[in-house]
Amino acid sequence: MKLYMIRHGETDWNVAGKMQGSKDIELNANGLAQAGQLYERVKKAGYQPVKVYASPQKRAFVTGQILADAMNLECIKLPGMEEANFGDWEGKTWEQVKTEYPEAFEKWETNRRYVRTPNGECYQDVVERVMRALVKVMEEEKEDVAVVTHGAVIMSLMCFLTDTPFEKMWTFKPENTGITVIDSEELKAALERDSVLL
């Protein structure tokens, strides 16, 4: 079983370089266009999801709904797939965060897997809730599915699956509506190696 992990379409905050996190930002015109083109990309790649799951946040769910409508599939909200909560840093650019929170940023940057942002999550928190959500999907589905989610979700998940230091997560950064293919066996193997659910 394959899981097609898809990052949502573009938002104005993406363009401005602002951290969105838990803020429920909507797609901009370009993001809606990207979502509209997603079906052709999925079809061209030969992917055949039988269902579309999506983070409940608007930018992801609308992307998922547009894809699902084009494929005559159901789009299901999947709690747990929301973007990382960046707490007090949301709405700011990386440069603003470095300037306004120098000590907190330095601690986070050197151990972002386990150091939480002020009033937010660390990436370990993200991995744990994401894995719980994906395990439920794997229990219910036997055929390939699409899961529309967020950039940091996909990057942290890939670090966990490949045992890559989270400080190198940018190597996995997907573009807006980029598709990252994960095999369910990879998820199961990662859980056996380093169970985050116990």
Give a nutshell description of this structure.
By secondary structure, this protein is of the alpha/beta class. The protein is 46% helix and 11% strand. α2 packs across α3 and α4 (94-100) packs across α5.
**Low-pLDDT regions:** none
Q: What is the rounded distance between the termini?
A: 24 Å
CATH architecture tag: 3-Layer(aba) Sandwich
What's the count of strands? 5
- The helix content is 40-55%
How would you describe the oligomerization state of the chains in this entry? single chain
Number of domains: 1
Largest sheet features: 5 strands, mixed
CATH homology-level superfamily: Phosphoglycerate mutase-like
Tags for this entry?
11% strand, 198 residues, Rossmann fold, globular, 5-stranded mixed sheet, alpha/beta
Question: Can you give a write-up of this model?
Answer:
By secondary structure, this protein is α/β, with parallel strands linked by helices. The protein has one domain (2-193): Rossmann fold, CATH 3.40.50. Helix content is 46%, strand content 11%. It has eight helices and five strands; from the N terminus they run βααβαβαααβαβα. The chain has helices at residues 12-16, 29-45, 58-71, 94-100, 102-110, 123-140, 151-162, 184-193; strands spanning 2-7, 52-54, 75-77, 145-149, 179-183. Strands 3-2-4-1-5 form a five-stranded mixed β-sheet. α3 (58-71) links the parallel β2 (52-54) and β3. It is globular, with a radius of gyration of 16 Å. The mean pLDDT is 96.
Topology, element by element:
Elements: E1 2-7, H1 12-16, H2 29-45, E2 52-54, H3 58-71, E3 75-77, H4 94-100, H5 102-110, H6 123-140, E4 145-149, H7 151-162, E5 179-183, H8 184-193
Helix pairs in contact: 2-3, 4-5, 6-7
